[in-house]
């Protein structure tokens, strides 16, 4: 049974929902197959209880990218990790429709890291340190 109205998916509603439930994250993971030994991964996500699985599928339709995957036994997560989708859809959307909470600071750092990755700066030691410096301070907010 669907309890939400398809008409709610307008930019203002999406911004408000993401302000409360969304996450813009930058992961730096060890990967010995890479020259510097680290990999940078951007991820935009929204996690909900499994009862709201259909709602998350509407985000796939609204943005035209990403996917929904299980996140443990009781949750599902809408995920966008593909850098081209982030650059083409997610980042421009939130630049056009800014977040209204402190989460905007996370988005700003997220978008800056995407720009650095587009320039291949994440493949240099200086760029990798710059990415860590940009994003880690936001974790204390």
UniProtKB/TrEMBL annotation:
SUPFAM superfamilies: Homing endonucleases (SSF55608). Gene3D superfamilies: Homing endonucleases (3.10.28.10). GO terms for molecular function: endonuclease activity. Residues 15-113 form the Homing endonuclease LAGLIDADG domain. It comes from Funneliformis caledonium. InterPro entries: Homing_endonucl, LAGLIDADG_dom, LAGLIDADG_Endonuclease. It comes from the Eukaryota. This is 17431_t:CDS:1. One of its GO terms (cellular component) is mitochondrion.
